[in-house]
Amino acid sequence: MKNTVKMLKHLREMHNLKQKDIANILGITQQTYSTYENGINDIPLHHLLKLADYYNVSLDFITCHNINSNNSFLDLFLSLHKDNQKFIIDFLKFLKSRESKL
Fold first, then answer.
1. Domains and CATH numbers, the chain
2. At the N or C end, where does the chain have fewer CB atoms within 10 A?
C-alpha cells in the first residue's frame, strides 16, 4: 500500500491537481481523500478504478502491482523531473499500443 500512496500523490502532482480536485472527482471530501493519500485509510477499489480511468493508466500502475518487487524502480521513477516522468509514461503507452498490434 505504501507504493500506492506514493503513486496517488505523484499522479495528482504530475497533473497539477490539488487534493480537493481529486476529492471532487471521487465525490468525497478533501479530508477523506487526504486520509487515502497519507496512508491513514485504504482507498476503496471503486475509487482506484475511477482514478485509473481519470489518469488513463492501469490499475496495476496505480497500485504498483507489477513493480512492488522492485521498489528501486518506483523510487527512481519518482525522483525524475515531472517532464521526464511524463515522457516515460507516454513511451510506455506507445510500446503497449505497438504490442497490441502484433
1. 2-101 (1.10.260.40)
2. C
